[in-house]
Amino acid sequence: MMRLPTVRLRHHGDLVALIDGDVLVSTAVGPRGQLLTLWSDEPGREALTSYEIQQPTTVIARVVEFWPAPALTVSFAELRLAFPTVQPLPDDRTLIVGARTGGVEHNAAVYDGSGELVMTGPLGDGIEYVRTTAAGDIWVGYFDEGVYGNDPLGGYGLVRFSKELEPSWRYTAPGGIGPIDDCYALNVTDHEVWTCYYNSFPVVRIQDGHATGWNSGRPAHALIAYGDSIALVRGYGVEHDWGAVGTLAGDRLVIEREFRLTLPDGSELPEEARIFGHGSELHAITDTAWLKVGLGDLHA
Fold it and tell me: What CA–CA distance (Å, rounded) separates 87 from 164?
């Protein structure tokens, strides 16, 4: 088997708790490319990552934004969402979405800048990704249990919601491309959205509500793009550090180079590291560090 060349991620920031005793609950990338993190104490993290979160409980949680230095954004006196993801909304509001509903219909909550609850709403069960834009559009990608569950929203695989938590667009696969069975990768910017999904793994670009697809046949849990240049990252199983760059040509993605991602010191990227694509930048989050690499570096 051919040994692939390696690409070293660059250190961009350290993940540090601003309050003693806080532990990291979840991470996500925001619409400006900032890192959004949710923190609580150890019992709070256990509650927020439990399917029993809807039982009476009080979890104190905090959102810390890294850019790259950390800054406390907002604190919540009570949070009851299972497997939560954080995203910003206009007017200094914060969106928290639970990946699993646990039998409770409203799994999205919007808070104001003081941490007071403003509204709640249903975004569907089985959520893999939540990403917002500067204008307040909310893009939600669903994994297979959401797509084939009992909630009709998840059946589309990818849905855009308004900042009022109302569905405003539902995905329909372009001609020659199959529907979404499981949203593996989602890259959202203010101008376009990219996705790669199971089971045929096309690369799909969405602009002004119109979807265009290219066949790739390569599974990827993250992708980054600039124009017709694409990078796919993280395949199946042992391919957690795999990546490939290519060009959109005709009706398919032509792979030009494959590689392996490593930590900045050249050591192996941990399998549990989270990978996000935002525009043309790839973000990797470990337990202690925020790492990045650009599409141009992957072509080099």
Answer: 14
Question: CA 255, CA 253: separation in Å to the nearest integer?
Answer: 6
Closest CA to 124 of 270, 145, 211, 222: 145
Distance from C-alpha of 184 to C-alpha of 189, rounded to nearest angstrom: 17
Burial of 42 (0-12, 13-18, 19+ CB in 10 A): exposed
Residue 206 to residue 197: CA distance in whole angstroms = 14
Q: Which tokens go with 251?
A: 């009706």
Sheet of 210-214: strands edge to edge?
A: 182-188, 193-198, 203-207, 210-214
At 43, is the secondary structure helix, strand, or coil? helix
Residue with tokens 């905090």: 62
**Average pLDDT across the chain, whole number:** 94
Say whether the peptide bond before residue 68 is cis (omega within 30 degrees of 0). yes
DSSP bridge pairs for 233? 222, 243
How many residues comprise the chain?
A: 300
Give residue 104's pLDDT band: very low, low, confident or very high (50, 70, 90): confident
